[in-house]
Amino acid sequence: MTKKKVLIITYYWPPSGGAGVQRWLKFIKYLPNYNWNPTVFTVRNGEYPVLDEALMKDVPEDINVIKGPIWEPYSFYKKITGRKKYDRINSSFLSQKRKKMVLFEKLSIWIRGNFFIPDARKFWIKPSIRILSKILEQNTFDAIISTGPPHSTHLIAYTLAKRFSIPWLADFRDPWTNIDFYKDLMLSYWADRKHRRLEKMVLSQADMVLTVGQTLAEELKELGSNNVHVVENGFDSKDLVLEKPALDDKFTIAHIGSFTPSRNHKAFWIAISELIEEDNQFSKNFQLKLIGNIDFSVLESIKEFKLSNYLNHIPYLAHNLVVEQQMKSHLLLLLVNNTPNAKGIITGKIFEYMASSRPTLVIGPKDGDVSKIVKDCNAGEICEFGDVQHIKKYILDIFYERVHYNPSVDEYSREKLTNKLSTLLHSIT
Known about the structure:
globular, seven-stranded parallel beta sheet, Rossmann fold, single chain, 2 domains
């Protein structure tokens, strides 16, 4: 059978690290198994928050990767804030650590929200359309896929799909106007209207909209899409360590990924500090392992609850080493953002947590999408945001080995999920 050709527009691509890159890196890895030949269009020298060269191993050798130039405002931001050329900037928000920069950073956020619409990658749109138009004039593609954020990718795909009459699938890894920091962008009435108009245009014009969870799917339907489907994130069995490593000597609770203010749940710190005070065995053996960026507010909480001596902070690890650290930990911690959209948040790491065969403690809404996944897979325990006693009980149950678990996660393998994606793609081509 002749393979169909699909053009995938993504900003995040190796050597970019983090969760955002892995969804489409893994889909692209397995799509050829289901009669699709992907071509990737991405950015040249993107301003990535983290780098992970280890992910390059998953890029198929024979895949065509086209890179387009981009100008991003972060270079200007670095100059006027005195940051070094190679400093990495979180593209969602500017640092909350630099107290003396508060006024400037507020201004920066206002400018970003009101003038860089839909996002700071808006200057990639026109050059990308020019490059890809030339390619599409000379090559036939059966489908176009755009994945966001950044949502600038959708505007590139919108123009191309309309100009060349190619079926278009728009993938929303995160919401647009419903994302938790949208309200903090200090948007003018005009800017808010423009964001919402562009969002509705994308959702209503795309032949299919894809997203990561059911709650977000329902939101996207309400915002204008009449053809929304869910294909979750997952885990790649080939990333797992073949021989399970020995558990850490210390009883380790591990959190992987960015530890942001909205994940800084006071109930967790209270629970840990009380356990240290009340249980001598726990106190002697406990270790808190945090892998990834930690916000200033989190470090302050650790100091406030006198937990600094228990902290093992690893700023960044390559993805393959992260998987190993997960498997060595006794309990994995998943902190759902305490924001109005908490029910619909599904962080990609939950699937790799579950695949590591270590129990997961979720602190978040019991009726949320991630909670349902953990329950259905028998992969851990869900505790509400403020439920200190429940958190304490589950941690002690794991510590004293009173809980036996047998997670079932096969349905979330990247290969099976790619098969699901392939079926959806065939339905619009």
